[in-house]
Specification:
GIY-YIG endonuclease
């Protein structure tokens, strides 16, 4: 499994100088790729909660991936904005991106 830039727990902004005690939580976005353990299938998605989303795929709550269960997580990348995450997701869904993901499943 390849994990890139994954963080666990809360992520906090540093408060502006002179404003100690006013921490502001911000949301991170994750692009992930999962590979079917039994079939030749790779799914790429975007979420703000990677643990919840991976569980949804493996429990059959996602209609698109239900038939390909069980899955293993092959890639997780973290982004500060939804737009950056979406751009990376689109790349990984392209032909070149899918070829890259296939190299991760053979390791």
């Amino acid at each position: 499994m390849t994990l890139c830039l994954r963080q666990t727990g809360s992520v906090w902004n540093l408060p502006p100088e002179g404003m100690v005690g006013s921490h502001k939580r911000f949301e991170m976005f994750y692009v992930y790729a999962i590979s079917s353990s039994e079939r030749n299938y790779i799914y790429v998605g975007l979420t703000n909660n990677i643990d919840r989303r991976f569980e949804e795929h493996n429990s059959g709550n996602n209609k698109t991936t239900r038939a390909y269960r069980p899955f293993r997580l092959i890639l997780v990348e973290e982004f500060e904005t939804r737009q950056l995450a979406r751009d990376r997701e689109k790349y990984l869904k392209s032909g070149v991106g899918k070829e890259y993901l296939k190299t991760l499943t053979t390791k």
